[in-house]
Amino acid sequence: MKKNIIKNILTAFAVAVMVVGFNGTKAEAKNVDWSEYDRSTCVCSTEGDKISRAMYCKSQRHYLDCSQVSKIDATIDMVKPIISAAPEAPHEAVKHFHDELCKRTSYSLDYSKYDLIDPYEVLSSGKAKCVGYSETFKLLCDIAGIPCRIVDGYGNSIPHEWNMVQLEDGQWYEVDCTFDDSESGDISYNWFLLTTKEMNKDHKRDSEQIGGNPPIAKGTKYATFRGPVITCSYYKDGQVKVKWKKPNKKNDVKGYEIEYSTDSKFKKRVKKITIKKPNATSQIVRKIKYNKRYYMRVRSFKRVHGKKVYSEWSSPIDYMHVKHYSNR
């Protein structure tokens, strides 16, 4: 997408958001009062200049940045169920928004469709450009009361746009829903809640940003990435082999942690194995008792600013260990 076209389209909206008011305070999710988005709250002409509307009318409807009343109402109808279903904690809410956007949207290669940068077009068509992903993600965060910024720059040396969010620890994190929305339909977390240092491996910010340069993301508390998919198989009597797929290299995994127990909720009788080999894809679990059902799960970990950050746990699998008898 041509960068100058993107910037021209976004300038008016960026200034409007600045006038309506962005604060850099600690994130606190709010209970949305949808009556604030009713038509009666807007006293200006919907066909007027966007910047003037934002200066003289404080209606929450201007967050939706649509010139047509019908599109504003339709956009509210589409975002309301997404936001209403979001968890209260900001770090959980942004994951919900990230996941819903990836589920509902696929990247469009049709470069003639410049309207796929607008949240209304994105949510109604299920197609988006990078700008559409970032604008829609920001809209969801804005309505939910979670501070969010848009970052202009390059992704893999191509003009690109992504987001930053400030969570309840007061720290900023970077998010790229476009990169996390894979063609296979799977949701990735390789570019979710990263530090700026991590994002800079394949992203580069523009030296000048609309609305001023965004902050440097240093948050690690809520960093997460998807756990591995695992399988279990008989290895030898009293031993089980746990296998998993090597993660995407973007995760910078430093090792793995295995938990296994006869308790499906992992609340008691839990045993742990730590593997400090980033290229490991299997581990033998020993001293497994016969005719008992075991539950096993795996998570990976990496180090961010010297701190160990874990992935989500894999979906647990159950395994019944039965003694194998050789034929004689």
Q: Which descriptors apply to this entry?
A:
single chain; 328 residues; alpha+beta; C8orf32 fold; Immunoglobulin-like; 2 domains; five-stranded antiparallel sheet; 8 helices; disordered N terminus
Helix % is 25-40%
Rg, please? 23 Å
Strand content: 15-25%
Termini Cα gap: 70 Å
**SSE series:** HHHHEHEHEEEHEHEEEEEEEEE
CATH architecture of the largest domain: Roll
Q: Kindly give the count of domains.
A: 2
What is the strand tally? 15
CATH class of the largest domain: Alpha Beta
Class per helix and strand makeup: alpha+beta
Q: Give start-end ranges of low-pLDDT stretches.
A: 1-26
- Please give the largest β-sheet: 5 strands, antiparallel
The strand order across the widest sheet is: 6-5-4-3-7
Number of helices: 8
